[in-house]
């Protein structure tokens, strides 16, 4: 009897069971070590229905929702994430702009900024500025670069990974001062942007005024391996799984969503993983998460924002990748 005949002989419930788990074998061989290691925990999280629902808050009351996620913690009474942060360098912005592309950049990453300036930045419409946002640095002075290009926003705090949430909140506060601004596109500097696809994504929103558009991830477990960069201890976040969140490498956020996050962030206990904290907040604040396949794409096929999350390509490597696909965009 051939393999096909054997498969046909299996009762329907058995076939459904096989089909349900047949993806596991290629998943194990094709994904990276971290994803393979997390597979059992991912499967566990997919059984936690409370942490899978998108756009359905666990608790409608804000205080009850916060307590559900953080039953063992209170918010920091000294929280300053919603404070007004001054700027050291300001970008030159077009009058009446409605969208802005914010590129998160480290002060010393001039090679990535130059890569973007020479590749995909010029493909965006003139009324959609690209702004590199950095914090301050004791080592790098960006004044001359900012004056030359007019595309750098330097915020008045020390730039570091632990200050990523502060960087985002301060960025929102800065652009909310412009009444014409309706959307901010946030991306990492090791990305390739398909300008046409990105503009289409920015216009395909729901009627809900408060939203984030990007790659919506579900079923992510809390990483309890202390040697990992994304480790979160149980004392910080009690649950085994995170609620749905938009991957932080690239997303679009509306003015109403930025306002809501900025107004309420100090009511939430702090989690140092920015996209996870935003996932918790968007759930409790009724901010709509809109999934789009083109974000955080790992391969150069059909994408809005290409980003390889498991390793960081150099600026030269990004330039080579751009050269391979620029004629297709």
Q: What this model shows, in words?
A:
There is one protein chain. The protein is an alpha/beta fold and 329 residues long. The protein has a single domain, classed as Spore Coat Polysaccharide Biosynthesis Protein SpsA, Chain A. 35% of the residues lie in helices and 16% in strands. It has helices spanning 3-9, 12-21, 24-30, 33-45, 62-69, 110-118, 143-149, 164-175, 195-203, 255-264, 274-284, 315-325; strands at 87-89, 99-104, 130-136, 152-158, 183-188, 192-193, 211-217, 245-254, 288-291, 305-306. The strands form two sheets. It has an eight-stranded mixed sheet with strand order 1-4-3-2-5-8-7-9, sandwiched between helices. Strands 6-10 form a two-stranded antiparallel sheet. Strand 3, helix 7 (143-149) and strand 4 form a beta-alpha-beta unit. It is globular.
Question: What features would you highlight for this structure?
Answer:
329 residues, alpha/beta, Spore Coat Polysaccharide Biosynthesis Protein SpsA, Chain A, eight-stranded mixed β-sheet, two-stranded antiparallel ribbon, 12 helices, globular, Glyco_trans_31, signal-anchor
Topology:
Blueprint (H helix, E strand, L loop, with lengths): L2 H7 L2 H10 L2 H7 L2 H13 L16 H8 L17 E3 L9 E6 L5 H9 L11 E7 L6 H7 L2 E7 L5 H12 L7 E6 L3 E2 L1 H9 L7 E7 L27 E10 H10 L9 H11 L3 E4 L13 E2 L8 H11 L4
Parallel strand pairs: 2-3, 2-5, 3-4, 7-9
Antiparallel strand pairs: 1-4, 5-8, 6-10, 7-8
Helix pairs in contact: 5-11, 6-12
EC number: 2.4.1.-
Enzyme class: transferase
Family: Belongs to the glycosyltransferase 31 family.
